[in-house]
Amino acid sequence: MGPWRCLLLLPLLAAAARAQQQQFMEYVERRLTLLEERISQWHDQSSRYSTELRDFKNQVLGMLETAEKEREAMRSEAESAAVRVDRLEREVDYLETQNPAPPCVEVDETLMEKQVATAKQRKNEKYTKLTDCSDTIASVRAMKILKRFGSTSGLWTKDAAGNSEKIYVFDGTANDTVYVFPRMREFTLFSATRKAARIKLPYPWVGTGHLVYDGHLYYIRQQGPGPFQVIKFNLANKTVVDSSVFPAEEQIPVFGLSPFTYIEVAVDEEGLWAIYATKEDEKNICLAKLDPTSLDIEQMWDTPCPRENAEGAFVVCGALHVVYNTRLPSRPRVQCVFDVSGTLAPEDASLVYFPKRYGSHSGMKYSPRERQIYAWDDGYQIIYRMEMKKKLEV
Questions:
Q1: Which of 7, 54, 154, 351 is most buried, by the most CB atoms less than 10 A from its CB?
Q2: Which residues belong to any copy of the Olfactomedin-like domain (predicted)?
Q3: Distance CA 148, CA 156 (A)
């Protein structure tokens, strides 16, 4: 082929190459566009799937959280129900095995007459001491004013037997709720009763002559206008375990300055006592020895201690100590002592003075294990620590 023919073919070949190149570029662009569309579609689908998966995950987590809360609530309810059932079973067992049947506290006239007759037969007999206690009060060694709580008249005390530190508070002269503080600290520091437990008594008390002794509360009840009863209340199971009509006819207030108290239950080294007064000998105070188990009267005495201007009394080593004051409160003093064993003559007893503070004592409880007196003076709670001496040394 000649040179001129080659020259003619070169433009044709160049045009053909450009056409092929253009077609190839168009093909590549179409493929890239299709690929981009597929990538975009995949991205959209992946994003949608991710969103749906995330929503599903959140939904499952919410359902799991709700299920866990419901499971925990059901478990808590089941445990609570089990505890209640167990408590109910224990309470039923306790009531069946521990609580005695409530005693009859209605007044039996025949029994009362028999008790009065028996007590009168043993009146003023010589007393045989149960212990070798021969101490008597020489003076008030110290006094501590704890606080002011409740009404102007009331009573506070500890259990006179054992080592319990509980404080029992009887606010007022007629009520049915006793406050119990776990220790002296809680009673002293807190003015309110939020730190105190409450014991609801089956019958209301009257006066301030009550006593806590050996796990039992001995308190005075009057049923209407009828005679007075001594109620023995078990503090552990909160039940009345015994009661007795006090075998004394036509009782009158035992203390001239405390007209709300008809029977003062006291305790000393010898045991349980009752201080009272009757119209038969309305000028003087009477004393009786009680059996703490049966509440029977073991012996009774007429004492030479007058009721007039008396504000309280307690027993120490078998000797009744009567505290006197005046209508206008002055310095209270032990001015009459009656020893049932005859060891201490009234004229040989010390004249014991209490420091003058506020008004008149409405409650004075002697603790034989602590040798001190828990007093309630015009709403103030006071502790008197006593100095003791032998009776023959006084």
A1: 154
A2: 132-390
A3: 12
